[in-house]
Amino acid sequence: MYSADDFAQAPAAPHPDLVRRLHEVVGDAGLVLDAEAQAPYLTDWLGKWRGRAALVVRPRDTAQTAAVVRICHESHTPIVVQGGNTGMSGGATPDASGAQVVLSLSRMTAIRAVDPINNTLTAEAGVLLANVQRSALEADRFFPLSLGSEGSCTIGGNLATNAGGIAVLRYGNTRDLVLGIEAVLPDGRVWNGLRALRKDNTGYDLRNLFIGSEGTLGIITAAVLKLFARPLGRATAWVGAASIESLVGLLADLRASAGERLVAFEMMSHDSLALVLQHVVDTRAPLEGAHAFHALVELADTRQDGLDELLESALGAALERGLANDVALSRSEAQSLAFWKIREGISQAQVRAGKAIKHDIALPISSLADFAHRAEAALRALRPAVRIVNFGHLGDGNLHYNVLVPADTTPAALAAETALLNRVVHDLVSHMGGSISAEHGVGQLRRDEMHHYKQPLELELMLRIKQALDPNQLMNPGKLL
């Protein structure tokens, strides 16, 4: 990780005219010039990437954001947009040139409207995900996007990366939870697409062009989000199984018996669980004995009646069919939270255990077991003692298939090992019709990898769109494309 001392040598000072013009727009509160104060904006939260910036700008509303972008457009100053800075792929970190402006949306925190009848909420890009969830609950509604970083990530960042999370199985990715957006274009013009409509077939779907674009096409400044009926009942269970094949079979059975009440189906290997128990305080194994794989299952409904019984019956049938070896049904909210603490503690445990070569992959659910067997065999052929941390959102086909390396691995050795093992894992994912980026975004982490696997025509179309909207290549250069 980095401290303010790492940024003590400031880059070349920004042009005085640029500083003056931006100051006229955002004032003292909107400019960060001091090297020490800039430090948190110049490195990602994992400490993998760091850069330098001419300055950090923090506009308070869309009008200020548009004015800042116009000035940068006129002066040919590159812009890196930043939300909560909780990304996993280096997509919000400036490069080392010191020529880029970091545009932080952290002051844009207004909930503009809540409409319980239309089931919508309009939020600015800097609103924390947890605050959106809270505002929905205050209106007796529910916003389902849920991430481990929800107390610090922002809606703008969620949209920019099309974030996933634990409820995709039922509600979809972020893209599926948005009706309309407002965006500042690279030349400073504002597109107001804040339409709260579920049917609108008037041309191209521009909204989805910006969602998932990682700030390379423009800046999302606000969004109309879908709300849902508030779940009043939940039933949670921990399952131990002999194989991923067994858990895939259990998932199919639960979908048949529980339907849309199945909101989460999280999987982790035995090694993933052991890592959490070793490195995360106040955690204990939910089941007796050893199980090769585990699942955290949750049902939710607007009524509690019958939910516990439904889950108990379904898991009882799974035990009889051999799809599960053991089951622990949550009997209290505290026990349910304890189950979720294990699942959410895997990333923290990996950081404490060493350095991880991370793979955020997606495959058809029917291919997950085959992939896991083949990937492990290929990795062990190269590194017999390799430590694999395999976990993720089994219900939507997204695995975090990570490889741990010792904490004292040098940067050069880590880079070489990453290149070697990435090729093994990503070649197999591509061969099996999967994606090398499921929910964390491409950023700079997977940019070159994406060029290796993306069809040339797809890349050409993406580049044409980029050129049409951002011909001067000023928006988040070096990321995604």
Automatic annotation (TrEMBL):
InterPro entries noted in UniProt: FAD-bd_oxidored_4_C (IPR004113), FAD-bd_PCMH (IPR016166), FAD-bd_PCMH-like_sf (IPR036318), FAD-bd_PCMH_sub1 (IPR016167), FAD-bd_PCMH_sub2 (IPR016169), FAD-linked_Oxase-like_C (IPR016164), FAD-oxidored/transferase_4 (IPR051264), Oxid_FAD_bind_N (IPR006094)
Domain of life of the native organism: Bacteria
Coiled coil regions in record: none
Sequence ranges assigned to domain FAD-binding PCMH-type in this UniProt record: 49-230
Keyword Flavoprotein: yes
Protein name from the UniProt record: FAD-binding oxidoreductase
Alphabetized UniProt keyword annotations: FAD, Flavoprotein
Family: Belongs to the FAD-binding oxidoreductase/transferase type 4 family.
